[in-house]
From TrEMBL:
Family assignment from sequence similarity: Belongs to the Fur family.
The gene coding this protein: zur
InterPro entries to which the protein is assigned, alphabetical: FUR (IPR002481), Fur_C (IPR043135), WH-like_DNA-bd_sf (IPR036388), WH_DNA-bd_sf (IPR036390)
Biological source species: Thalassotalea litorea
Superkingdom assignment: Bacteria
Name of this chain's protein: Ferric uptake regulation protein
Assembly and oligomerization: Homodimer.
């Protein structure tokens, strides 16, 4: 899906939820939608400052926080970066990411089997999963 189509979908989703997609949030969303790989907050800030020279780190962090809460982006903890979710109509879905350590490509996959296995193990331990992000590092097909 193209960046503009994703933005339209995000706008529609925000409207349905009563959430406000401000100009700054929209700009950060578009920068992420146009990015081929995961991107860090300061790299986003640098790109945003090319559009809005007055942008500050707090602008980016507030936008990322909003986008994350809406399920539009996922934070990749292991590399302290963010990636756009291309199927954010379900913002509570389990997230499974394949991260190439060579080129930085990130692919989001969805495995119901992995989710069920994790939930079964959590249940057996008396643990309730509220949010799930699984990160797997390795080498993508292109870099092999």
């Amino acid at each position: 899906m193209k960046a503009q189509e994703l933005l339209q979908q995000a706008q529609k989703t925000c409207k349905q939820r009563g959430a406000r997609l401000t100009n700054a949030r929209e700009q950060v969303f578009m920068l992420m939608a146009e990015s081929e790989q995961a991107i860090g907050a300061y790299d986003l800030l640098e790109k945003l400052q090319a559009i809005d020279p007055g942008a500050k780190p707090a602008t980016v962090y507030r936008a990322l926080d909003f986008l994350s809460k809406q399920g539009f982006v996922h934070k990749i903890e292991s590399i302290n970066a963010f990636v756009l979710c291309h199927h954010f109509s379900d913002c509570s879905h389990p997230v499974q990411l394949l991260i190439c350590d060579t080129c930085g490509h990130v692919e989001e996959i969805q495995s119901g089997h992995l989710d069920l296995a994790m939930r079964a193990m959590a249940d057996a331990s008396g643990f309730t999963i509220n949010h799930q992000i699984v990160e797997a590092h390795g080498t993508c097909q292109t870099c092999q």
